[in-house]
Amino acid sequence: MTTSIQRVGVVGGGQMGAGIAEVCARAGLDTVVCEADAPAARRARERIADSLQHAVQRGKLGRSEAESAQWRLAFTTRLTDLADRQLVVEAVVEDPVVKAEVFTALDKIVEDSEAVLATNTSSVPVMRLGRATNRADRVLGLHFFNPVPVMPLVEIVTSLHTSAQTAATAEEFARLTLGKTVIRSKDRAGFVVNALLIPYVLAAVRMAESGFASAADVDAGMELGCAHPMGPLKLADLIGLDTVASIAESLYEEFKEPLYAPPPLLHRMVEAGLLGRKTGRGFHTYDRG
Ligand code: NAD
């Protein structure tokens, strides 16, 4: 079963944007990905092609379905190419200024006044992004999890201005079209999952920083002692240490609780470009090929 949304735009084709675009195309939707420049658009295309191929190799997707999904995808560097979209999901870097600029531009570009403008932000208040437009009632958070084709959860985040109709349309889309499980959250930094997850990840960073335990032992402790599929520092590497630091800063700014404060080691690693899997090194090292 599908909803009336057939034309989707995704702004930002990094880890999350590429995953969101992939699940939309796999669900039969006409999907346009807008990236910052041509090399980034090419990387987004390659990222999705690799992921589709991987799904075929693992028997999760038929070859012809993967080909059809690729036909439904288009890549651009012009936001104006999203003018006819019924839903746009913003998934650019976790920077409130960049995100607000995207929303202000989308407000002018997207023609359908009923279109839903969603953000995949992990921590920027949805209200702030809604207020960057003249249609705050149509703006909400649609928070996917990494890797998007695999993780079943979507958090729907409504601001004080989001209309009930917008939330219902987005929930129907996530549940019926994409087959995700939805939980609802109010518009507080971190929403439900990151408000719980990030203090735990930061505690693990502090343990490694103080020399209390090695990164490998911290991860092994939680994987083998608590049956977590991935230890907290591997998880931080998967999320991206820049993204973890940004979410922690937003949580700290919102609640002023020391447990949300990003430890110095996290900042230094971000400054060093050690962002985790996406750069090949974080708390662990990865084969970038
Ligand atoms: P990323 O760094 O992998 O990708 C961000 C992409 O945005 C880059 O490809 C960049 O070129 C592009 N971009 C930057 N400015 C742009 C612009 N003005 N127009 C178009 N594209 C632009 O980051 P990510 O991990 O994909 O995170 C994206 C968003 O998703 C963030 O808000 C993050 O908090 C959120 N999120 C991340 C995760 C995670 O596990 N990484 C999970 C849930 C939500």
Explain this structure.
- By secondary structure, this protein is an alpha/beta fold.
- It folds into 2 domains: 7-186, NAD(P)-binding Rossmann-like Domain (Rossmann fold, 3-Layer(aba) Sandwich), CATH 3.40.50; 195-278, Orthogonal Bundle (N-(1-d-carboxylethyl)-l-norvaline Dehydrogenase, domain 2).
- The chain is built from 11 helices and 8 strands.
- An 8-stranded mixed sheet has the order 3-2-1-4-5-6-7-8, with helices on both faces.
- α2 (38-57) packs antiparallel against α3 (63-71).
- The radius of gyration is 19 Å and the shape is globular.
- The mean pLDDT is 96.
User: How many independent structural domains?
Assistant: 2
What ranges have pLDDT less than 50 throughout 5 or more consecutive residues?
A: none
Query: Roughly how much helix do the residues carry, as a percent range?
Result: 40-55%
Broad shape: globular
> H/E element string?
EHEHHEEHEHEEHEHHHHH
Largest beta sheet: what is the strand line-up?
3-2-1-4-5-6-7-8
How big a fraction of the residues is strand?
Answer: 5-15%
